[in-house]
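Check out a protein:
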Amino acid sequence: MADFTPLVFPASDYSAYCALDILQFLHSSGVTDKDASDSLAPVVFISFSAGVVGAIGAAWQLQFSQNRVKAFLAIDGWGVPLYGNFPIHRISHDYFTHWSSALLGAGEEGFYADPGVGHLQMWRSPQEVWGWQMPPAGMSSDPERITALAFIARRLSPYGIAGDRDRAR
């Protein structure tokens, strides 16, 4: 398991929808060096709701300045364009949100809750939210019934971040 340091962006002190605030937080936390062209550590973003707007902007800026973004998980980032040269995964609280947001960039594997749940339930209780893991566009594999937490754990596992995947089911 790789070493990592989880950081929680203090949305009570900064604007989560502002890429510059997120970048400033990463710099002040020592994750990136704004005077160097590479990050001190690769970054994995897990963003929620309006925070997806700021996080994708920060991820784009990090990539532009040669910092490494390992992956980007967007939880209920409805209406936010998601493109980048790093793995992107959409996680949605219902099918409509997933489908309509995918028009602005589906990313790789995605997840939507079925039955749909309240927006905040996805963030507060992902272990209780059941739905479908969707294969990347163009893949012929079938969707898989899974919890949101298990989906997130699977996406983070290649980076040495997730815990016991089976426990998350």
In short: The helical segments are 19-28, 51-64, 95-102, 119-124, 148-156.
